[in-house]
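Notes taken during the Thursday session

The instructor put the following on the board and asked us to keep it in front of us for the whole hour. The protein is G-protein coupled receptors family 1 profile domain-containing protein. We were told not to look anything up and to reason only from what is written here. First, the residues (170 in total):
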Amino acid sequence: PMCVTTRYYDTLTCGLPCYLFTVWGIVDLFLNTTLPVATILIFNLLLFGRVIYRNMTVRGRMQNTWHRHRKMGLQLGMISFVYLAIWIPVVVTQFGENFINPDFLFDASHTFYFLICIIPLLLPMVCLMSMPEVLKAFKVLICKQQAVAVMPSNSITLRPLPKANPVSKC
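Then, after some discussion, the predicted structure tokens were revealed:
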């Protein structure tokens, strides 16, 4: 082996692998973290610019499909925002640790590494938030309407009550 990894059991990730502080660590930093984040950022910006450009040039013919494309773009934008909002600080921290100072953002780096584990938990909620039809169906299931009738307790004569208006629980 090129190095020996020392484990620190009192830290969040038990210490980093020793190869990260060699040339292979820099290659790993570029290929596995920086390249995917940069690719997603660049292609999302290009796609967003293309959609805006097409919307401005093809105003009349494609107006009926713009609503569908807008929903797809909103979903893609929200998913990529969650991914990039968590990974960009990690990439900046790793660059700072490798090229500036090994203690660069040391206190915050543990938080950034922990947030990476939250991405798979957030993505289903983000997808649901970008689908208004699903949100309406959930609201109907959760907030079922029930009819409420109010009857006076001190009345001697009983008459049929008019039909009550449904009242929502939400």
